[in-house]
Design brief:
Order of helices and strands: EHHEHHEHHEHHEHHHEHHEHEEEH
CATH class: Alpha Beta
Distance between the termini: 16 Å
Structural class: alpha/beta
Shape: globular
Number of helices: 15
Bound molecules: D-gluconic acid
Largest sheet: 8 strands, parallel, barrel
Radius of gyration: 20 Å
Number of strands: 10
């Protein structure tokens, strides 16, 4: 079997992490522009990688690497700087970016919400306030009207678990609120917004859409591959409350129309009907297995390499995520993020020798290949990230890019791992 001919080999980014130009051409601040002291070392995302001004250069680099797709997010504060006000300049930026991608033969994959809530929407109550549903749909409608003649792939949300749990329960991500009741309201509003947005895109997009969302997948690698081991692993992956919460909390209502144990008292039958609007694919963001958090037995983290953020590197988790999602939800899977942070530097020879990311790519893509070889529909792989960028509260220290960015000069340098990835793409994943 292996990878399909039209497999989408790409890389990903998000508006707040790369664009910069935070107050230019009519954009209003987002909750991340206003994050202040919460960011490591007093940094901010105001300039980031200046992708807003340098997108042509960036797309040229993507082309040089042979990417087939680019996953980026649209910035709601750039499109709607005030409630009900549409910013034409903001729309033009994305139209120009898409034209550039089109010329380079690169498929745009659009995330509609990657956490940069406009500050005005936050001031009106943000995700916990019921008005957010219509506000989000107004925004989605504008974007779909403007871009759906050329965009086919849409993701309603990136990692709901992060912007719901971390932002409203744990208070560790913008807008830094710690209020469990508000969090549960935010969860319901996000789920309803998702279902309604899927319907709206389906009904109004000019090009037949493929709609999904990108989940922060929490994956438990089975201790054994017999029936009991597989069932135990799937149960842990979907139902355990680890880190940012379980996969099932979001995905069971969305893909099965069922409340999970945690949402049973929160979602009505009517809600579940709206939320479970049929999707075309599910995106998984995969970084590390949940085994060290859930059950350390037979899983020796000491023996495994780790990234600079101390995340365990274990390529097997990509295969298991894809397989477990497929078996539970029966939706084609897109790997919407996978990558690692490393303190990369440009050496004296002018290159970035990130051997560790090369090994990472090898192991994770081999693992994904196992899923494709077994006949599971895997649509694409978007490496996180196309370039080093603003890593939320951690600022600019962790470098996740295939392309190195010097933040003083904005000079881009293609890393060794990216050259290796380009060769993988050339052979459609056959030569690893
Ligand atoms: C996420 C986000 C990205 C992050 C990446 C590395 O998954 O948290 O989608 O914005 O930068 O995952 O942490």
């Amino acid at each position: 079997m292996s990878f399909s001919k039209d497999f989408l080999w790409g890389a990903a980014s998000a508006a707040a992490q790369v664009e910069g130009a935070w107050n230019e051409d009519g954009k209003c601040p987002s909750i991340w522009d206003a994050a202040g002291d919460h960011i490591q070392g007093g940094q901010d995302c105001h300039r980031a990688c200046d992708h807003y001004h340098r997108y042509k250069e960036d797309v040229a680099l993507m082309k040089e690497l042979g990417l087939k797709s680019y996953r980026f997010s649209v910035s709601w504060p750039r499109i709607m700087p005030e409630k009900g006000v549409v910013n034409q300049k903001g729309i033009e930026f994305y139209q120009n970016l898409i034209s550039e991608l089109e010329k380079a033969g690169i498929e745009p994959l659009v995330t509609l919400y990657h956490w940069d809530l406009p500050l005005w929407a936050h001031e009106e109550g943000g995700w916990p306030a019921p008005g957010i549903i219509d506000a989000y749909l107004d925004y989605v409608k504008v974007v779909v009207d403007a871009l759906s003649d050329r965009v086919q792939y849409w993701m309603t949300f990136n990692e709901p678990s992060v912007f719901i749990m971390l932002s409203y329960a744990l208070g560790s991500f913008a807008p830094f609120i710690s209020d469990p009741q508000a969090c549960m309201k935010a969860l319901r509003h996000m789920l309803l917004s998702h279902g309604k947005a899927v319907k709206l895109i389906r009904e109004t997009a000019k090009k037949t859409p493929k709609i999904g969302l990108a989940m922060a997948a929490t994956t438990y690698i089975p201790r054994s591959e017999d029936a009991a081991g597989l069932a135990d692993a799937a149960e842990k992956s979907f139902l355990s409350q680890v880190g940012e919460g379980s996969n099932a909390l979001y995905m069971d209502p969305i893909a099965l129309g069922k409340a999970s144990p945690m949402t049973a008292g929160i979602l009505s039958e009517e809600d579940l009907k709206i939320i479970s609007e049929p999707m075309d694919f599910v995106g998984v963001n995969v970084y590390q297995p949940s085994n060290p958090l859930l059950d350390k037995e037979g899983y020796d983290t000491e023996k495994l390499p780790k990234t600079m953020l101390d995340w365990v590197i274990d390529g097997r988790c990509l295969y298991w995520t894809i397989r477990q999602y497929w078996e539970r939800y029966h939706l084609p899977v897109m790997v919407t993020e996978n990558g690692m942070a490393n303190p990369d530097e440009v050496g004296e020879d002018g290159h970035v020798h990130d051997e560790i990311r090369r090994t990472f790519l090898h192991d994770f893509i081999a693992s994904m290949k196992r899923a494709a070889d077994e006949g599971i529909p895997v649509l694409g792989y978007q490496h996180w990230s196309i370039m080093d960028n603003f890593e939320w509260c951690s600022g600019y220290g962790p470098r996740f890019g295939l392309i190195h960015v010097d933040y003083d000069t904005q000079k881009r340098t293609i890393k060794d791992s990216a050259r290796y990835y380009a060769r993988i793409i050339e052979s459609n994943g056959e030569k690893l």
